[in-house]
Amino acid sequence: WLSTSLSEEKDSNLAKVTTSVRILLLETEDPVAIRKLRAKKLVSDTYHIVTQNWITGGQEPNLPSLPNSNGTYTDVHGLMRTPTQTISLGAADTVRSLVGRRMGKSKDTCLERLVVLSSRNGKLD
């Protein structure tokens, strides 16, 4: 019994300090997609690799994706990124309720209160 409980404890500790890696082959020549996903050239200008890593005991990030027609994509950290130029504010009441309040210094903190992204892990790009 003692050896089993120690082994489980060691396994859980090991999972907290071990890194998992995912390597994806990206077949595109789009310079914007290559830059945003931090892809590295593999053989030619056509093939690139994208790497993700995370703590083994933690939650695995979402798979990265290429920017779609409106520019939304999932980055190497698993976060959905939305270009700010695609965001519009439709609720005047929401804007009026925030007038005069301190929102924050960065683009993210200022606009996150105004924008609801389609993913709970979304960020503005």
Description of the structure:
By secondary structure, the protein is of the alpha+beta class. Helix content is 28%, strand content 22%. A hairpin with a 5-residue loop joins strand 4 (73-74) and strand 5. It is flat, with a radius of gyration of 20 Å. It starts with a helix and ends with a strand.
Q: Globular, elongated, flat, extended or rod-shaped: what is the shape?
A: flat
Rg calc: 20 Å
- What's the end-to-end separation, in Å? 52 Å
How many distinct beta strands? 6
What fraction, in percent, of the residue positions are helical? Answer: 25-40%
In round numbers, the mean pLDDT is 75
Largest sheet: 3 strands, antiparallel
User: Helix count, per DSSP?
Assistant: 4
Q: Quote the beta fraction.
A: 15-25%
Strand order of the largest sheet: 1-3-2
Element pattern in H and E: HEHEEEEHHE
Oligomer: single chain
- The low-confidence parts are 1-6
Give the helix/strand class. alpha+beta
Gist?
The protein is built from 4 helices and 6 strands; from the N terminus they run H-E-H-E-E-E-E-H-H-E. It has about 120 residues and is α+β, with helices and mostly antiparallel strands. The strands form 2 sheets. It has a 3-stranded antiparallel beta sheet with strand order 1-3-2. It has a 3-stranded mixed beta sheet with strand order 4-5-6.
Notable characteristics:
alpha+beta, single chain, disordered N terminus, three-stranded antiparallel sheet, three-stranded mixed sheet, 22% strand
